[in-house]
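Dear colleague,

Thank you for sharing your sequence with our group. We've completed the structure prediction you requested, and as agreed, I am returning the results in plain text so they can be pasted directly into your records. Please verify that the sequence below matches your submission; if there's any discrepancy, let me know and we will rerun it promptly.
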Amino acid sequence: MSDSPDSLENNAGDPLLSEFAEIGTRIKIVAVGGAGINAIETLNLHDFPNVKKAAVNTDAASLRNSKMPERVLIGRGITRGLSAGGDAALARKAAESNCGDIARVVENNDLIFLVAGLGRGTGSGAAALIADIAASKGAMVIAFVTMPFSFEGGQIAEQATVAFDELRLRCEAVIPLYNDSLMQVVDAEETALNAFAQADRWIQRGISSLCAAILKTGLINVDFAALRAAFPIRGGHTLYSLGSGTGPDAAQNAVEELLGSPLLRAQESVRGAETLVIHIAGGTALTLAKANDIVTRISGKLGGRNTIMLGVNIEPAMNDALDICVIGSAGGFKQRPGAFLEPPRKIEDLLPRGNDAQTPGSDPSKTPENRAGKRVQTELGLDEMEAQRRFFDKTRPSMLDGHPIDTPTYIRRGIKIVL
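Please find the predicted structure tokens below.
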């Protein structure tokens, strides 16, 4: 048996090495609802044995069939384990009835990855409450959420929009994956199961990339404390994209795939990011000079004017392949140091109520020349940029014949764009 000081297992009797083994970034992936559980059920964490997974659901049958190591049934006395039936408000009540169990799931973690499908019941109703509890326990929260197809329209689209806005107020980053984007990357003959499996892979790659950047020893590591400091705002937009390449032009192909990905084209903001986190994984041919060129090309298109964080891992088994993952943030509002958000509002309270709907947290007495409850624009005056960013955040999606027309036409109709 080796006596190498690099082997913690072989030096288990050394109290100093035992202490080192227990120190590190504590990460947990929490899946909410059926779509969230399906997305990470098959996520391979063999490279990250200390990263844990947990499932939270109102559906007892779904949890019973899941292989997730930690499973929590919420709302037993409300839904009787029969799911929330697509009712987000009911799912919120179910989550509220089990706040103690949720707190035990998220406590003692530095980073929580929250995974949910928005539009239907449990994911839409419970995700924001779970994020709030995780934040109150001191965790950084990054959410990956799937958004419904535009053709689903109506209540599903509105529930997804409201739940998404709730999450943005409670997470450092919320990454939306639009189901409409699946029509850009799968063939018309592809089965629905295979199409949704692609969305699951997008989520799994993002989580795995961030775990590798933080936990694996590489050419360049991402320090978790620095990562958290780089996301000091909430309520902003988060961009996310992936790219892969092989062969002598692997880096060029990976960058082109990333910048042309439907993941970016479906998002509201793909330029002017304030923060960019870039993770690059490749074989032994990957050099720092090549990584620098990749970062220069990506930041030239996407931004990162305040902070660019780079993680680079060498994986000999990848040979001549190369993978890139980018997460960025733009906009939002500053968080008060050491302060947590107020208890979550009911999801139905977030629905706008006509033209007099007010931006959450705004004070009408501080608006220019506010008289008789009316907001008056001062001559040649403009709102501060922070206020402009969030003024329309709570408006309803634009609908036509039950379909949200904010989604670009080529995405709604499944028209592939060849770059």
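Summary note from our side: The chain has 15 helices and 14 strands.

Kind regards,
the structure core
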